[in-house]
Design a protein that fits this description.
Largest interface: A-B, 115 and 98 residues
CATH topology of chain B: Serine Threonine Protein Phosphatase 5, Tetratricopeptide repeat
Distance between the termini of chain A: 58 Å
Distance between the termini of chain B: 96 Å
Strand content of chain A: over 45%
Number of strands of chain B: 4
Shape of chain A: elongated
Number of helices of chain A: 11
Strand order of the largest sheet of chain B: 1-3
Oligomer: heterodimer
Organism (chain A): Flavobacterium resistens
Order of helices and strands of chain B: HHHHEHHHHHEHEHHHHEHHHHHHH
Membrane topology (chain A): Multi-pass membrane protein
Structural class of chain A: mainly beta
Strand content of chain B: under 5%
Radius of gyration of chain B: 25 Å
Helix content of chain B: 40-55%
Pfam family, one (chain A): Plug
CATH class of the largest domain in chain A: Mainly Beta
Number of domains of chain B: 1
Keywords (chain A): Cell outer membrane, Membrane, Signal, TonB box, Transmembrane, Transmembrane beta strand, Transport
Largest sheet of chain B: 2 strands, antiparallel
Number of helices of chain B: 21
Subcellular location (chain A): Cell outer membrane
């Protein structure tokens, strides 16, 4: 290992010395020329334009004033070739007089400039892969508090699963899940600094903590570029397999004089997709209910189900009536009324300025979100600075900084909040007659004392707070070593503390003594990189754009957790106020990766390009023998319209591209040696126990290989632009902590063999059907289809399934031969004809063999954005769809069991089609007997909620056994198949109306610019299959999706945003 | 100048990062790679007791099946309306925690664990395998812990293997073989471990008695003639005594926050019928003082029927079982005496079956703090209690069932084997009038060890609650 490191250092020194030596070369002095390059329209200087003397290799680049200077042996007059990305290449004949050269911007796809890996801008036509970018205003003006949500439907091949509720996490997947077990979230890079997007303690907590990237303020984002998969992102190495999201923040560049921008927005949120509740029957069981103490003292008053009496106004004692019989009536909005209208205030101010030597932008943003769940609140303040200073002709230094303070006094209780905090858990058991206003009047009042506390009590007393202080920033330096060769150096950090405090109040049902816990995280991600970038016209035909660099990555995260499981006295939330010894744990995790990389782009006549990259990593997480791993990539593009010199009124542009790439990936820290854990000592005796996880001393790096081809073309003078990509990605030697049968000695073992294939196509269409002076109509369409297949899990092929996650008896599996994310659970027992088999009791049976019941991964995604521009008014409408895939719905499962859902009405009472039956002799131990052909025997009570489960007896005869509706709707609780639904949806995702104040009017008002945007998000479902929930609800950013488990309702948001620039 | 500064910085940064080697960085700071025998022993005893006495395998399953307890709320497990996710803890903790940690002790070099540690570990491992096979049937035994997808062994293979294992454990245990610490149960008294080993051998001998009588007889003779002796007083009883929260008795912890169990009506009625003085120990009076007598909850009712029995009008299990320091009894003196009675009755060993039977009941009384000799003899002399030599299974089965109160897994096994007392499934149960005869295998076996699972099920019968196991002839 040492040897390799030394070699690596030598390489760095060698690269540096090239720089030093190269610096010595100077042209022979004979003639001098000064000049300036400006934009033909704005007359602004063009910075960084390259100027070459035709017929020679001598070239220079313009400085911050657009100025350049030649000292050369060339005799006047000679010809200059002036080029700059996004501008038409221009040739100018010069003599000794100073010149001003106008450059004209190119207005078509030919010249589009995009940000590529390591922040290097390139002409899009030179790339052998796709990238897609969004402008900051598209993200900022919609006012999503988790800005990832606002990417939904706008990018081909990017799957966003929006937050449940209004304060949660959002999951982003690019081109399918390429890692069977690991993190599939892309790498986020902000201004060259890799930024953490973890969701710490995602599964273990009672709350849906927002993933860390949501800390960014969309107001600060200039552009967001998605590098889809390894082909585009190979230079980022290990973490590029899942794609990269490059974010460039706003800077002071291009700001004439001082610019001050105010932005103010307000968002109103309402809950949508609340379950559809029934309002015919109240709390209780078998039609009976009467409240005494709410825990079994009355008639069924400990029962938290709604199989009670009809809600017909009959008089029954209830929880608030002190034993008085009061009307038993429905409260149809008793769940809806609990939720508030959410409000988010978002205010920011930024100041920017630039001059010949420097530019800066500083900004502050404050966001206050009051959630839809009472008492939930998040406050976030971002302070940003972005500044550059030209120290000398050739050296520029700069700093970026983003300091973020998040303070959430209470986050809404998510699905795993349990009885003390789970919001929807209680509401799916909530008696339909419960008057929520009576609960609000006195939070010590309670409708059920067997299981719950008053929901307001939970929301206001059983809190989880989160405070995060975060610094993202870098210092960077750029040096022009000589014409064409630059050196860039950057050291960046993303450091944060995240502290959570959990309080459960004394007297909470299920936690009678209350509890208090503190959970603290410290995350530190540091990257230092140096990069030589060389740009050269090799000859008239050939250009070279090459780079070589290194990166040192250090990452650490630490956690400290302490809990007082039972408080000594109420309402004092300290760790010492405890009846019991504290439970505590702490972990520290560190890793380091050294990398060296290089890339080269060779261009031919500006229509054919070959791109090569190579990278080698040395990771601390792998055993020393496998620590170093190398991976290359190659791609190319050919602009056929230029190569074949096609001049057509129909076809403007046609480009073919293709490439192959490989990236390696390391493991998590500490995956090599099996360990033993300590548990809380028993009466002075330490306890040690197996970690139940067998690790692997021979881990190899994971490898992902991807092939991508594509066509891009535009027609009718850019009225229609079309891009289609096909990719095929194989990820193998995957490091999997595979669940094993406990009888193997371990609940999981680390293996290094998994292989998964993903292939898909992506289509982007952009059309301008109407393009008048005052009115424009633009249609943007994106479509993507990804198909995955789990090929193998272990080389011995003993293991068929990898368990990604489980909930409610359903496993999410990576199952050999299947698409990723198979939902695996209990099915109905069926006969040879597919009929459900019922037992002698008339209830369906579960097949003892579990089955694959669906897959959570969708078949395809699509988004259509229509943008209409009339003068200064812009209206855009986004509809997006996710088609195919299944989910398991815990809400429907629970709600059927408890009888609160409207879908449990059929059969409940004669008016709902219920059958009449009686118990012979009025003895309920006797079997239920259908009343057929007339009346029941005299004197017996007749019930009218009879149902017959559709199925056959074991002997094949049709089921004719009558059961009560209550039995009917509970019968399938343990049969997962009954609650599998298609997750297909089509949503009217976003409508946005922007008015840009006329420049002249703005000037009169003393403004540089102004705009007002009104936007609506998640407006309505155009189609969905699953009842009672939003099929798109992520509780975390992990891979165990497709399991809906009493998720918070999603919200519909309306926002108004005003932007003023002075 | 600036350039020089830059290069110096760059080189310095590159070099400084070599101070920690990458290997150092990847040394796990959170856990140890070195296990210690006493700490593992303490852990397995505690976790074994939790497993045996906790909700998953005891009071939310087997204790309901044998009608010691009943559910008054959320009655699904009491109605056998459960799935193959219901019985995973016995399997997962049994194998991945207990057997794995015990194997670690067994495999230690002598310097790390003397042979007494290994003898104790082998004994506890045998006990764990016994629980597993009694509950599920065929289980991975020979290949357990050795393969990623271990094959299952039949019950016959497991039981006979365990007899050999226990024989070996007995030979490893010797007071001269060194001290043992971390032993929370017997405090390092090796002689008591030797007694436990023989009592477990006797227990297994009777397990196989209906299938392999010759083998059973030899095992019973071996167990009872071993110099180490059997459990011979309540002081020898193998039990784990809890302390205070958070390490309180699991049933006690459950009742701190929930109130969904009652003592079963079946048991209360039986105890009333026999005028059994253990009733006030086994049950509490209903909280509604007007009831004034012990009232059990009926098993296998629908939620509402269960509920309408009244939380305040039914008896909770006795406080003896619900205090934070209540013990988890795992192998009692009384059980050993019942086993001796049966071994005599079956003609395996010589002795007085009736006397063993009476002693067993007496030992049970003593175990629950009833020492009044008159009360005991009055009880023993009742016709309904008297030993019936013509139907020893009925006498022993019924009394063993009462004595096993709280030990759901063993009560369930012995009830299946002896077929007494005759229990009737509750009205709302879902197995067409039957009571479960086993646990489901964890559903995850189908996905994680599918081929072995399929082979086992093919040999044993469908993976259903009602499939009879090999030892359970009738």
């Amino acid at each position: 290992m040492k040897k390799k490191l030394n070699r690596y250092i030598l390489l760095c020194i060698f690269l540096i010395s090239i720089g030093v030596n190269a610096q010595e070369t100077k042209p022979l002095i004979q003639s001098k020329l000064e000049g300036t390059v400006v934009d033909a329209v704005t007359k602004e200087p063009v910075i960084g334009a390259s100027i070459n003397i035709k017929g020679t290799t001598h070239g220079v680049v313009t400085d911050f004033d657009g100025k350049f200077y030649f000292q050369t042996g060339q005799k006047f007059p000679y010809t200059l070739i002036v080029s700059y990305l996004g501008y038409k290449k221009t040739e100018v004949v010069v003599n000794k007089n100073a010149v001003v050269i106008d450059l004209t911007q190119e207005q078509n796809a030919l010249s589009e400039v995009v940000v590529t890996a390591l922040g290097i801008t390139k002409e899009k036509k030179s790339l052998g892969y796709t990238t897609q970018a969004l402008k900051g205003k598209e993200l900022a003006s919609t006012k999503e508090t988790n800005f990832l949500n606002s990417l939904t439907g706008k990018l081909a091949g990017v799957r966003i699963t929006n937050s449940q509720g209004d304060m949660g996490s959002s999951r982003i997947i690019i081109r399918g899940e390429t890692s069977i077990a690991g993190n599939n979230q892309p790498l986020f890079v902000v201004d060259g600094v890799p930024v953490d997007n973890s969701q710490l303690n995602a599964g273990g907590a009672t709350r849906d903590f927002r993933n860390a990237i949501a800390d960014l303020n969309p107001q600060d984002i200039e552009t967001l570029t998605v590098l889809k998969g390894p082909n585009a992102a190979a230079l980022y190495g290990s973490r590029a397999a899942h794609g990269v999201v490059l974010i460039t923040t706003k800077s002071g560049k291009g700001q004439n004089g001082l610019g001050i921008t105010f932005n103010s927005g307000i968002t109103v949120s309402q809950v949508t997709t609340l379950p559809d509740f029934q309002n015919s029957y109240g709390q209780g069981s078998n039609g009976k209910f009467s409240f005494v103490d709410g825990k079994g003292g009355g008639v069924n008053d400990g029962v938290d189900e709604s199989w009670g009496p009809r809600l017909d106004g009959r008089l029954i004692p209830q929880f608030y009536s002190n034993g008085q019989a009061v009307p038993f009536v429905a409260h149809p909005n008793n769940v809806k009324d609990f939720f508030n209208t959410g409000l988010t205030y978002d205010n920011s101010i930024s100041v920017a300025k630039s001059d010949e030597k420097s530019d800066f932008r500083v900004g502050v943003n404050n966001q206050k979100q009051l959630g839809t769940v009472p008492n939930s609140e998040i406050n976030k303040t971002n302070f940003t600075i972005n500044t550059n200073y030209q120290i000398s002709k050739s050296i520029k230094v700069g700093v970026t900084g983003n300091y973020i303070v998040t303070d959430a006094p209470q986050l809404p209780g998510g699905p795993s909040g349990g009885r003390a905090a789970g919001v929807m858990l209680q509401f799916l058991w909530f008696g339909r007659q419960v008057d929520i206003n009576e609960l609000d009047k006195d939070w010590t009042r309670n409708w059920n004392n067997s299981y719950y506390s008053n929901p307001y009590w939970n929301a206001y007393y059983n809190t989880t707070s989160q405070q995060r202080n975060r610094l993202i920033g870098d210092i960077h330096l750029e040096a022009k070593l000589f014409d064409g060769l630059d050196f860039k150096f950057r050291t960046g950090v993303d450091y944060y503390n995240d502290r959570r405090k959990y309080t459960i109040k004394y007297g909470t049902n299920g936690t009678p003594f209350g509890s208090y816990a503190e959970d603290a995280y410290t995350v530190n991600e540091q990257n230092t990189e140096g990069l030589f970038h060389y740009n050269k016209n090799l000859s008239e035909d050939f250009t070279l754009d090459a780079l070589a660099g290194f990166n040192i990555r250090n990452h650490s995260d630490a956690n400290n957790y302490q809990k007082a499981p039972r408080l000594a006295v109420p309402d004092l939330y300290t760790l010492t106020n405890s009846r019991d010894p504290l439970t505590s744990s702490n972990t520290l995790s560190r890793l380091r990766v050294y990398s060296a990389y290089a890339s080269a782009q060779l261009g031919f006549r500006n229509y054919a390009f070959l791109n090569l990259t190579a990278r080698n990593d040395w990771s601390s997480t792998l055993p020393s023998s496998n620590r170093s791993y190398f991976y290359p990539s190659i791609n190319g593009s050919l602009v056929l319209t230029d190569a074949l010199n096609i001049k057509s009124n129909t076809l403007d542009f046609l480009k073919l591209r293709g490439g192959w790439s490989e990236v390696g990936n390391d493991a998590d820290p500490y995956q090599l040696s099996t360990v033993y854990n300590f548990q809380t000592a028993f009466d002075g005796n330490p306890i040690q126990t197996s970690s139940q996880k067998k690790l692997n001393q021979d881990l190899k790096p994971e490898t992902t290989r991807s092939t991508e081809v594509g066509i891009e073309s535009s027609f009718w003078k850019n009225r229609l632009h079309f891009d289609v990509a096909y990719y095929n990605t194989n990820s193998f030697d995957q490091i999997l902590e595979i669940k094993t049968t406990a009888s193997s000695g371990y609940n999981s073992q680390l293996i290094n063999a998994g292989k998964i294939n993903n292939q898909g196509i992506e289509v982007q269409l952009d059309g301008n059907p109407i393009q008048l002076e005052n009115f424009k109509w633009n249609v943007g369409v994106n479509y993507s289809k990804n198909t995955s297949k789990v090929e193998i899990l272990d080389y011995d092929k003993k293991i068929q399934n990898y368990t990604i996650g489980s909930s409610g008896g359903v496993d999410v599996l990576a199952s050999v031969g299947q698409a990723y994310g198979a939902l695996y659970g209990t099915a109905y027992e069926r006969d040879a004809n597919g009929n459900i088999v019922v037992g002698a009791n008339g209830l369906p049976k579960a097949d003892p063999t579990k089955k694959v019941l669906g897959h959570y991964t969708p078949d395809y995604l699509a988004g259509v954005t229509n943008t209409f521009t009339y003068k200064n008014l812009e209206l855009s409408v986004l509809v997006d769809a996710s088609v195919g895939g299944e989910l398991f719905s815990g809400t429907n499962r629970t709600g059927n069991y408890t009888g609160v859902l409207a879908q449990t009405l059929p059969g409940r009472g004669a008016e709902n089609g219920g059958l009449s039956y009686y118990y012979p002799g009025n003895n309920t131990s006797n079997p239920k007997t259908l009343v057929t052909g007339g009346a029941a025997p005299g004197g017996v009570a007749v019930y009218d909620d009879g149902m017959i489960f559709g199925g056959v007896f074991a002997d094949g005869t049709p089921n004719n056994k009558v059961i009560s509706a209550q039995e009917y709707y509970k019968a399938s609780y343990n049969i997962s198949e009954a609650y599998i639904y298609s997750s297909t949806y089509v949503k009217l995702r976003e409508v946005r109306l922007t008015y840009n104040v006329d420049k002249k009017l703005a000037k009169k008002l003393g403004l540089q610019g102004a705009s007002i945007t009104a936007a609506g998000r998640n407006l309505l479902f155009i189609y969905k299959d699953v009842p009672n929930i939003d099929p798109e609800t992520a509780f975390n950013t992990g891979n165990a999706q497709g399991l809906e488990s009493l998720a918070l309702p999603t919200t519909r948001n309306f926002s108004l945003n005003v932007n003023l620039k002075f | 100048m600036l350039k020089k500064l830059l290069y110096t910085t760059l080189i310095a940064l590159t070099l400084s990062s070599c101070n920690d080697t990458l290997d150092d960085i990847n040394a796990n700071p959170n856990a140890t790679e070195t296990p210690l025998a006493p700490y593992l022993l303490t852990g397995t005893l505690k976790q074994g007791a939790d497993l045996y006495w906790g909700d998953g395998n005891n009071f939310n399953s087997s204790l309901l099946f044998v009608q010691h307890w009943a559910k008054i709320q959320y009655t699904e497990p009491d109605r056998y309306d459960v799935s193959n996710t219901s019985f995973t803890s016995l399997w997962n903790t049994g194998y991945a925690t207990l057997i794995t940690d015990l194997n670690t002790i067994i495999k230690f070099p002598d310097a790390q664990a003397n042979s007494n540690y290994k003898g104790i570990a082998l004994t506890l491992r045998s006990w764990t395998f016994l629980l597993l096979t009694d509950a599920y049937g065929s289980i991975p035994y020979k290949e357990a812990g050795l393969k990623v997808t271990p094959a299952y062994n039949t019950q016959k293979e497991v039981y006979t293997g365990l007899l050999d294992d226990l024989k070996q454990a007995q030979s490893l245990l010797n007071t001269a073989n060194g001290a043992v610490t971390g032993d929370l149960v017997y405090k390092g008294e090796i002689s008591k471990w030797k007694k436990l080993v023989n009592s477990l051998r006797l227990r297994i001998a009777l397990r196989i008695s209906d299938r392999e009588p010759a083998l059973a007889k030899q095992a019973a003779i071996d167990a009872t003639s071993d110099a180490g002796g059997l459990i011979s007083s309540n002081a020898d009883t193998f039990k784990f005594t809890y302390i205070s929260s958070p390490q309180q008795n699991p049933a006690s912890a459950w009742f701190e926050t929930r109130d969904d169990f009652r003592i079963s009506k079946t048991l209360v009625d039986k105890l009333y019928e026999l005028s059994d003085p253990r009733l006030p120990v086994y049950a509490q009076l209903p909280s509604d003082a007007s009831v004034g007598k012990y009232v059990g909850g009926a098993n296998g009712l629908s939620n509402s029927d269960a509920n309408s029995q009244g939380f305040a009008k039914t008896s909770k299990p006795g406080t003896y079982f619900l205090t934070s320091a209540s013990p988890a009894v795992i192998a009692s003196y009384s059980e050993t005496l019942f086993n001796l009675a049966e071994a005599v009755a079956r003609g395996y060993i010589s002795g007085d079956a009736e006397q063993y039977y009476k002693n067993a009941i007496t030992a049970s009384f003593n175990q629950f703090g009833i020492t009044d000799a008159t009360a005991i003899s009055n009880y023993l002399n009742q016709a309904t209690v008297k030993y019936d030599a013509t139907n020893y299974a009925k006498s022993i089965g019924t009394q063993k069932w009462i004595a096993f109160y709280g030990q759901g897994l063993d009560a369930f096994t012995e009830w299946r084997r002896l077929d007494y007392p005759v229990l009737k499934a509750g009205p709302a149960t879902v197995l067409d009038g039957k009571i479960p005869s086993r646990f489901f295998y964890p559903g995850t076996e189908q996905s994680l060890n599918g081929d072995s699972y399929q082979a086992a099920v093919a040999g044993q019968g469908k993976d259903l609650l009602t499939t009879k196991l090999w030892f359970d002839v009738k």
